[in-house]
Write the structure tokens for this entry.
Amino acid sequence: MLLGTTVLLLLLGGAGQASAHAALRGADPADGAVLKAAPRSITLTFTESVGLIDDTFRVFDPGNGRVETGEAQHVDGRSDTARVTLPAKLGTGTFTVAWRVVSADSHPIAGAFTFSVGAPSATLATVPSGPVEDPAVAGLHKLGRYLAYGAAALLIGTAAFVALCRPPDVRPLRGLLVAGWWTFTASTVLLLLLRAPYETGAGPAQALDPSGLARTLTGRPGIALATRLLLLAAAAALLLRQRGRVRPTRATAVTGTALAVGLALTWAAAEHASAGIQVPAAMASSVLHLLAMAVWLGGLTALLTLLRHGTLPAAVAARFSRLATLSVTVLAVTGVYQAWRGLGTLDALTETTYGRTLLAKLAAVGLLLLAGAWSRQWTGRLVRTGTDTREIDVAVTETNEEEAEMPENQLVVKAAAVVGVSAKEGVAVRTPADAPAPRVEDRSADGPPLTPAEHAHRRALRRSVLAEVVVSVVVLGLTTVLTGTLPGRAQAEAATSGQAVGLPVASVTTVPFDMSSAGAPGARGTVQITLDPGRVGENSVQAVVYGPDGGFATVPELRLSFGLPGQDIGPLDAKITDRGGYWAADAVNLPLPGTWEMSVTVRASEIDQVTETKTVRITR
């Protein structure tokens, strides 16, 4: 229960924040710019390639009316840009631009900014202050990605275990292969259906919209998911063909390897590896990393399954120990490269969410390595006992390709007819004809009864492998979070450009006030306060007063101050002034991040005034 709760927190925590590889590098017109003449277009430049959707740009005039624009396009074929044309007679005042694109690594990103023509003005336009994605869709999407990772490890890892570690009894592993295939397929279908609402920010109900699905199948993430389904169909045919055989033939092994590489490519082609620097090397590294992870973690599950069924010869455990060592080596090499590519600098390890998540994953992998060393210790002791390595040489090691094609019952008969002497080790082996039928927990793959020492070694190995499997679940959860987090390198590029990443660029707060009990006329309404950009440092402030009917209202005086009680800062007077229909201040310095208290004082007459307080979040 605790493990399941931990995984859910890893998956769903932070679902309300934008997570992507691309970040906004610059905008023309720039955020907050005041232009003498109306621009003919709006151009955005990003740190990486982006995809455009139907509502990539939404432009609103000062009265919150939607401005008719052209179709969003890339500039001169550059995939890291987005441009939209504006009407010739745009008008004057402050305009709000809300944008939304899909990063090349499949994650949506969004933001908003303002520019003014002629002079700044009061504006009724507001942009959502919530998450980029619908929370329910974002949570389901994260869950689908996690299940896909786990199912890939189960399917690919178990198949690799059967082919490379050659267990004599594969019947207990068939359930793992079937469960892995069905979970992999179901999670892929879920991700495919959720793709459209995930990109547009719509709710789960839009997942069944045929038009959204059709649009999904024209984009790179949708094509990758559809390709994954085709590869899974081919994998199902291969599993059905292999049913009833003890070991895969060479042709089956080659086909299975090609399918595994293809499945790994469906991730590399649609996520972080497909965008940024050194894309070919990054995609190759991503494929190797995912396959090594699958072989290691999926093999652990297969190993634990055979241990629980009492059908694990020591020789099989020894083969997997060598395979796991190779997998860990590949993971280490590719992981170092991917960390360098994603972080850019060592400081990003502690100063970015990506870096901190990576450190958490490294800590979990360290625990996994300790558990693996424990397992290798008990595997070595089990091999040194030598009791159950003998039957492997009769039933498996001497099996050639023709025997691998035989049904299990024929192969057992053939093994039973073999002379009871191991050609490899030269020791006597009991055949089914002269050996008693020990209980499952007292035998090794229908071989001789286990000694007390072997019993102890197997129990210890089962505990250590179980520990590895438990930690691997957490590692997969952290991997899922990491693939959906803005890499440190992209975050640094966005910070250098001075553009905010995600929505909103400006903080918009509505403060209601009511002095009607004092008898003052028109003493009830709201104050809309825009704090731009809503981050540490200098911010511009605009405040608009609305009456009870939603129309503009005028008041004799409006005061605004900020305080950070936890740090004993403030109140800081914003010194806003009447700009003719709205109140504003060009520079309000908020020196620290945190939850600030914003106090608004509205005076309706010489004696009637009210002060209301709202909190506002200031980020770095």
Remarks:
- The longest helix spans residues 353-385.
